[in-house]
Prior knowledge:
- The chain is α/β, with parallel strands linked by helices.
- The chain has 2 domains: 32-98 and 363-537, Beta-lactamase (3-Layer(aba) Sandwich), CATH 3.40.710; 105-355, no CATH class.
- Helix content is 28%, strand content 22%.
- The strands form 6 sheets. Strands 3, 6, 8, 17, 18 and 19 form a 6-stranded mixed sheet that branches.
- A hairpin with a 7-residue loop joins strand 9 (220-226) and strand 10.
- Helix 3 crosses helix 9 and helix 4 (161-172) crosses helix 5 (292-306).
- The longest helix has 21 residues, at 517-537.
- The radius of gyration is 26 Å and the shape is globular.
Amino acid sequence: xxxxxxxDSLHIRVLLLTAILAGGLVVSAQSNSVAEDANPAxxxxxxxxxxxxxxxxxxxxxxxxxxxxxxxxxxxxxxxYTPASNTxxxxxxxxxxxxxxxxxxxxxxxxTSGMIDxxxxxxxxxxxLGAGDPTMSARPYPYRSKHEASANSLPERDPLEAIAAMxxxxxxxxxxxxxxxxxxxxxxxxxxxxxxxxGWDDLVWSYGAPVSALTLDDNVVRLHVxxxxxxTPTATWTPATPFxxxxxxxxxxxxxxxxxxxLDRMPGSHMVRLWGTIPAGxxxxxxxxxxxxxxxxxxxxxxxxxxxxxxxxxxRAHHRLNATTTDYAMEQALPMQFHPVQIxxxxxxxxxxxxxxxxxxxxxxxxxxxxxxxxxxxxxxLLLRMLGSLLGNDGSYAQGVRVVRQFLxxxxxxxxxxxxxDGSGMSMSDEITPRAYTTLLAYAAHQPWGxxxxxxxxxxxxxxxxxxxxxxxxxxxxxxxxxxxxxxVSTLSGYLTAASGKTLVFSILVNGHxxxxxxxxxxxxxxxxxxxxxxxxx
Length: 538
């Protein structure tokens, strides 16, 4: 019998290397140097910037082009990098191009299949039907940079405003009792709370909040810790929904002693541990909600009880697990054709149930601004699931990724230039080339939706995640770009206005810089200097 050979990628690489060595060939890395027609002065400036010790062993890719695609500068621009939150450019661009974002809203409903008797008792479950709305929070819309609350501070507005209004509507309809459960239903999307390649140690904090079609206040609960006279700190939750159990062994730091607080929660657990010493002035810790649909149900039950509505049942979640048997990588790579999305409201099927109350969100376009300006991970993931639901086969990660991938191919991005596994960039498995970003950015500039999408990006020295960068420089107010950061990863991609008045697209992706805040800051400073050098040269 003839021997069979399995020529996998490793075998091919070994055979190729053998052939190269045997033939005495010299092969250079693809795009391993600057563009052939690069400006020598610009080349020298960038090389000097990249000689920084913090970047000595970093992997750096740069692409700069005009809006018509002419290459201004390129360094390793065909090599793939972990993009961090630059991934949000892909998700939000696809949504801006494929959805009627200026009129499309999310509608969250309270529904029931039960009957209401003459005494005001609802016989049956009360179901909070999620639609993937990310806006039910304390955040004001439209986006206002000076009013964007930090996850580490207590909100100025009531984060339960939307769901409280629905509880008021139940009371106003004369319902005094519910003989059934309060159900948080997030079945519009499959229950896959975390993206492929997310770090397990990120999942308990606000930036790693789980993805659910029923989202309340960014799926974050804040632990407010404050000191008192006897040195024992007190702790309260905002919102005050009974959900987590706190094990508190912390003490308030005495005068002159540096506070060293400790806080953790294991994924899957409802037990939060607080230990160590806390500052006398207290602090606020934002923590991810383990099961957002269950939390929303518990919150609604709490609000109904406060309004005198008696509930005999329990608060519980209703999830829908992913039932596909198709290989994940194969599924997301399947080609597809897009159909026009003409709906004005995105909601879960009511399926014959009676609607008792509803909440309608601001337009999707307003939340795209929030997503890009403040780099809101959860909102990008919900947008990805929405794309999968409306243009794919299901509200799953794989279908959302499939939609965005096809959009990028249609925009002219080379298929070998990217692969990604989520909508926000939390995944360390995401990879993309700098030239893929400049291809997308240049493409968007010529599309009907492009100008509005560009306005959703942070502006240097003005707002969002760039408010403290480029201030009082030649690019103050003249650079619109998406930031990105993970451990030892810093990225920046977007538009800048050069000294000539010409608009350029650029992408700077840095992987593997030295760890620690000091080196991360040095890396972003170097990236900013590169942008200023490009602007001055053109």
